[in-house]
Amino acid sequence: MVEVIEATPLSVPESDALRFLPEGPYQIAPGKLSWVGIQHGADATHGSLNRYDLGSGENISQDLPGRPGFAFPCRTENRFVVGCERELGFFDIATGNWEVFCEGVDRDVTNTIINDGLAFEDNLIFGTKDLEFATKKAGLYLYRGRDRQLIRLRDDQICSNGKATVAQNGQLALIDIDSPTRQVVRYQLDIDAGTLGEPKVILDLTSDPAVPDGAILTPDGSGLIVAMFLPQSAAFGETRLYDIATGDCQKVWRTPLSTQNTCPALVEHDGSLKLVITTAVENMSQQDRAVCSNAGKLFIADSGFKVGDWSPPVYQA
Predict the structure, then answer these.
(1) Mind giving me the DSSP string for 66-133?
(2) Does 314 fall in a domain?
(3) CA distances from 313 to 26, 31, 72 (A)
(4) What tens-digit pLDDT sequence spans the chain (317 residues)?
(5) Assigned domain for 317 exists
(6) Assign residue 121 a region: left if phi > 0, alpha if psi is -120 to 50, beta otherwise?
(7) Looking at the 3D structure of the chain, how many domains does it have?
């Protein structure tokens, strides 16, 4: 039987600009998380890095020089690695300085920007999205830290979203979502060679009305928590836990009056491991927004996992 948990909306974000497209929540310290506002409105050309304190309820928002897809804390204090537009760079939250270290993402196509990604040791694995959500031209990339090489793994995605790495039979595997396919696939990933194996579908959601968006592994690596983006009004949205081996849905976190779930994150808070879920207003009609009054808010719920079983990776650059 599938367990159903009701998530609680937080007071953040408060402005329409920040509620438009929140994604990429990530623990930066116990009780604190970062998240990105990909863009601050339908016609906006910039977004923000945000840091939220679950204890105080304070959110600090800092504009970035474009639209970010992801942001992860680095070992160096006050430093985040950010995928922004078609560049990778470091953003200093103390000074506001933006330092580009990699350019040329999707150099040979137009109208794409960096979207979701993950940090693995000193590497970054990330994808891009076609801003029209129509053409298979978006890339899937490995930025290999040891030699600072940008390697394109695929060039035929539309909207590259949730990602995770998992050790499998002594090899590294990449779990990946190209959202319009409504499938979750797994590849063997060889970082040394800079190559992917053939994709294997591990979750087929093609008959689902919602679209799989951001995703994270459970602490033991056996399950995948997937934010489901339902582009219509309803009483609630869903973020689901799937067993990777069987494909069975084991748990559902509901987000009341907010249907467009974008990304999940595990965050330690008050001695337990919470699930934080970002949701979005993007593309909602006025009628849908009238129903979905919590759209664009962050939500929090009990994850059911223990604090000692998990810690977030830090970019090792």
Answers:
(1) S-EEEEEEBSSTTEEEEEETTEEEEEETTT--EEEEE--TTTTSSSEEEEEEEEETTEEEEEEEETTS
(2) no
(3) 10, 16, 9
(4) 899 999 999 999 999 999 999 999 999 999 999 999 999 999 999 999 999 999 999 999 999 999 999 999 999 999 999 999 999 999 999 999 999 999 999 999 999 999 999 999 999 999 999 999 999 999 999 999 999 999 999 999 999 999 999 987 889 999 999 999 999 999 999 999 999 999 999 999 999 999 999 999 999 999 999 999 999 999 999 999 999 999 999 999 999 999 999 999 999 999 999 999 999 999 999 999 999 999 999 999 999 999 887 888 889 97
(5) no
(6) left
(7) 1
Across the beta sheet with 68-73, the strand order is 68-73, 79-84, 87-92, 98-102
Domain that holds residue 96: 3-309
| pTM: predicted TM-score of the whole model, two decimal places | 0.97
State how far the Cα of 98 lies from the Cα of 96, in Å rounded to an integer: 6
Could you tell me the CATH number of the domain that includes residue 91? 2.120.10.30
**Alpha carbons 187 and 127: distance in angstroms, whole number:** 15
Q: Which two tokens stand for residue 259?
A: 């249907």
Whether 148 maps to a domain, the answer reads yes
